Every structure is written in C-alpha cells, then in structure tokens.
Automatic annotation (TrEMBL), chain A:
This is DNA-binding protein. InterPro entries: ChsH2_C, ChsH2_Znr, NA-bd_OB-fold, Thioester_dehydratase-like. Residues 20-55 form the ChsH2 rubredoxin-like zinc ribbon domain. Gene3D superfamilies: 6.10.30.10. The keyword Transcription does not apply. It comes from the Bacteria. One of its GO terms (molecular function) is DNA binding. Keywords: DNA-binding. Residues 58-114 form the ChsH2 C-terminal OB-fold domain. It holds the Pfam family zf-ChsH2.
TrEMBL record, chain B:
It comes from Teichococcus deserti. One of its GO terms (molecular function) is acetyl-CoA C-acyltransferase activity. The keyword Transferase applies. The keyword Transferase applies. Keywords: Transferase. This is Acetyl-CoA acetyltransferase.
Length: 129, 390
C-alpha cells in the first residue's frame, strides 16, 4: 500500500447536517426510534421501520465486525466493506490500516474517521481492533 | 385479476451491433423498434402502447415517441428499475392490454456504453446528490463490481462457494456464445481461464464479469386475439412477479436477492414449479448474479448454487437447466449496461424453436426470464416472467 485513496466528500443536506457535524467531532450517529428503540442506519428523520415514534440520533460505540468486503483493484486499490456495528446496523465503509490480504469476514474492527477531499466532513471508516 | 394468459409476445428483435460508433442512441431505439414490429408482422401504425426506461433519451417516453414516430399512443410507461425494467414492462404491458388500455405495446432498449467508453463496472458513479444513500455510500467507492463482489465474498463465507464453481457459469455461457455470430466473446473458456484472469474486485475476476456492449432490443406485446391473427409462433405470458430489495435501514443481507419474492410471485401466478421450466434466461451481470438468482428462484436450495452450476449443468444439451443460450451478458451482449430485454428475447427464441440449433432446447414449451436492476450489494429491482408456447 503505497498510495491511499482520498475519499470524495459527502454532500450533507438539511436532514443529515447533524450527522456530518457530529462526524467532525469523531462521533458516528445512528437513528433510534424513541418509542420502539429500534436502530437504523443511515439515520433519517422518519423511522424506516415503525410508523410511530420520533427518531433521535444516538452515538455508536464504534466497534464492529466485518460482514463482507472486497478489494477494488483500481489504480489506487481500496477495501470496501459492510461492517456490522455492535449495536446491530450494517454500514457501507472502507477498511483501512490493514494489509489487504489480512482482511477477513468476522474480523473485529473499530471506527476511525478519515478526512475527505477538500474541506468536506470526515467519513466513518474502520481499522482492525 | 391475474394477467395469466392475457397477453402474448409476438415480436422480438435484438440489434446485431455490439459497437455502434456511427449510430446515435435514439437511432438504435428506432432501429430495434422497427425490427421487432417487422418480426411481429405489424407496423408503427398498430402501436398504441409504448414502454421504455432510463436508457431512452429524453423525458420518459416523450422524445422516443416523437423520434420513432409513434403518434397514436393511448398508454405509456417509463418505469425505470435498471436492467430488469424491460421484464417489468412486459408485465405492465400485459396489465394494460388486459385492462383494455392498449392493444399493441412496443418496448425498446438501446445504448452505446462501449462507444462512449464508459467504465461501467469499475468506476464509482456519484449519482444524484439528492438520492439519500449517496452521501453515505459514494465516499467509500461503491462500483458495480465491488458491490457484487461483496455478495460473492459473503456467499463463499456462509456456504463454501468457490471461485471454480462461479467460473462454471462463464464456461456454460461461452459454450453457448460460440454458436452466436454476434456474440462479443465467442471463444469457449475453461474454469482455469476464468480463475486465472485478473482480479477486478476480489473475489471476482475479469471473466466473472459481463461484457460492455452497444446495441439494443425490442419486444412487441399484444392480446391473444391479435396474436392468433399473426404469422409468428405465439408466446404467452403465464406468470409475472416483481420485487424490490434494499439495504433495509442497516439490516442488509447479501446472501439473497429480490428474485426470492419476484420468482415466487411469478411461479404462483403461472401455477408451475421451477422443475417444470425447460429453459431459463437469468440476468448475468456477473457470475455471482446468476448463482444467487438460481437459488432464489428455487432451482436449487439456498447455498447449493455452487454445486448446481458446476460441471456444465447450465449448458444446453449437457446439463439439467440450459441457461442464456445466446451467450448472455457474460459473453454475448449487455446493451446499455442493461441485460433485461435480451433475457426475454432469447427466451422467446427458445419457445419459438428459433434458437441456434446447437443450443435449442428440445420441446421447449415453458421458459423463465429473470432480471435484476440496480445493485445486489445495495438496492435492486427484480422481475420474473414465466412464458409458454401456445
């Protein structure tokens, strides 16, 4: 790994500004239904599961396991993955700080925000725990 | 109300081009439209229903209706669910015909990603920033190939599926493509060829991927009454099903596809079982796409797809389930990066007995065509048709 891919910056919208502001403080937020307690990701103002209850944003602990992954053999290769958070939701991300050949499904990983292109908010990536 | 038996496919045409440097996308749409109408023995003046999807330039069906010269439309539909749109369109056309909203429906697809130099499977595409998932996915570089690769990786982990088993799917497609003079890849390949080709997105190799081609196709759907007055063999729509599967708020399960639901709905309407199907057109953007859909459609148990496809079981005249006898997207053609319409076209050829003699399935009276649109790794549409020769 000689070169690291610089991720493009996400474009926040009015409904996700809080999520990306929290990202700048190193916090990964999940959506939680105030009535049912069910967690969802990515968070959105209207719960995707239940008609009742308000969505509140709660921080994830930042621990998870790799659910699946693939090494993209691009000019600057990178590891895309779904990580299953300890809280339950699975999220698309990248695995960083690990030799590609060492990455495994089931591997324990921890959250590490990474800077994006320009002055965009950092994005949640994961590295071996 | 069921659409079983309420409509028939009477025209089917696949553009022979695989590289259309000297043609426009609109021109390809018009050429396939006339090709399918000629095949049916009909003319533009007969068309009162038009169906197209996101590959058609312009707002919905408007520019194409204008350009092709369709001037008596009483019904239109531009449902866009990527590559499976055209299978959904066949079902929607059957519904419209059954409801009396139109009598002769024309469906077109065309595109020229090869001439336009689109890095279809390997370059992440940003999409519309208003699409709510983009900001949570695009920074991580989701391309088509690595999304399907994650499905393959998980399938291997849960069920012990191997790269060699996936390779058999390409091997079978290549055995069929050798007989198709228009196919992009006509060379018969081996399992070793596939697993020794360069990795694109682990565990998928270059030969696990479909081709990037220009071209297009069109279909004509009409009522059984009109179909019987035409000279072509009648292919009747016996069952249809659609479904959407998505990330589900973070509960995504990469081991199955929407085919589980679309297929079940189509089989239920048709009143037949997977074992009754003599020929299957299965969407084949990648080898893993085929394997997972075969399981989800019920041709084998979940997790047994690797064993099912191995040893030539998908090769016509050799195995139990002949699939994609035109060579499919894996070897023949994937026009506009959307393989849905060619799936229906080859099923129609098989039911008419007009497939290449080397791959024609004997007594092929019941066929299935299945498509996926979008990404198995995130969100996709699925559409299934059960077709029969009447």
């Amino acid at each position: 790994m000689t070169e690291t891919r610089i991720p493009p910056a996400p474009t926040p919208d009015p409904s996700t500004q809080k999520f990306w502001d929290a990202a700048r403080e190193g916090k990964l937020l999940l959506g939680r239904n105030s009535k049912t307690g069910k967690l969802h990701y990515p968070p959105r103002p209207v719960c995707p599961f239940d008609d009742e209850g308000e969505v509140e944003l709660v921080p994830a602990k930042g621990a998870g396991t790799i659910y699946s992954f693939s090494i993209m053999r691009a000019k600057v290769p990178y590891a895309i993955a779904y990580v299953e958070l300890e809280e339950g939701p699975r999220m698309m991300t990248n695995i960083i700080g690990a030799p590609f050949e060492s990455i495994r499904i089931g591997q324990k990983v921890r959250l590490q925000f990474q800077p994006t292109d320009g002055d965009g908010p950092p994005v949640p990536m994961f590295t071996p725990a | 109300m069921s659409i079983r038996g309420k409509a028939c496919i009477v025209g089917a045409y696949e553009h022979p081009t695989r590289k259309a440097e000297d043609k426009s996308v609109a021109q390809l749409h018009a050429e396939v439209a006339l090709g399918a109408l000629r095949d049916a023995g009909l003319t533009r003046a007969d068309v009162d229903g038009y169906f197209c999807a996101g590959d058609a330039p312009g707002m919905g069906p408007l520019s194409m209706a204008d350009y092709i010269g369709l001037d008596r439309l009483t019904h239109y539909d531009s449902t866009d669910v990527g590559g499976c749109s055209y299978l959904a369109h066949v079902a929607h056309a059957a519904e419209a015909i059954a409801m009396g909203k139109c009598k002769v429906a024309l469906l077109t697809l065309a595109g020229r990603p090869r001439s336009e130099g689109v890095a279809t499977g390997t370059a992440p595409r940003p999409g519309d920033p208003r699409q709510p998932d983009v900001q949570f996915e695009f920074p991580f570089g989701p391309a088509i190939a690595n999304m399907y690769a994650m499905c393959a990786q998980r399938h291997m982990y849960e069920f012990g599926t191997t790269s060699e088993q996936l390779a058999w799917i390409k091997v079978a497609a290549s055995h069929h493509a050798q007989h198709n003079e228009h196919a992009m890849l006509r060379k018969v390949v081996t399992v070793e060829d596939v697993v020794n080709s360069p990795l694109v997105a682990d565990p998928l190799h270059r030969l696990d991927c479909c081709v990037i081609s220009d071209g297009g196709g069109a279909l004509v759907v009409t009522s059984p009454e009109i179909a019987r007055t035409l000279k072509r063999p009648v292919v009747t729509i016996r069952g249809a099903g659609e479904a959407i599967k998505h990330v589900d708020g973070g509960r995504i399960d990469l081991t199955y596809t929407g085919a589980r639901f679309a297929g079940a709905r189509a089989f239920e309407m048709a009143g037949v079982k997977p074992a009754d199907i003599k020929y299957a057109s299965i969407y084949d953007s990648f080898t893993i796409t085929v394997l997972m859909q075969l399981e989800d459609l019920g041709f084998c148990e979940k997790g047994q797809g690797g064993k099912f496809v191995a040893d030539g079981n998908l090769i016509s005249g050799v195995g139990k389930l002949p699939f994609n006898t035109d060579g499919g997207g894996l070897c023949n053609n994937h026009p506009a990066n959307r393989g849905g319409i060619t799936k229906v076209i080859e099923a129609v050829r098989q039911l008419r007995g007009e497939a290449h003699p080397a791959v024609q399935v004997k007594n092929c009276d019941l066929a299935l065509a299945h498509g996926t649109g979008g990404s198995l790794g995130t969100r996709h549409g699925s559409a299934t048709l059960v077709l029969e020769r009447s």
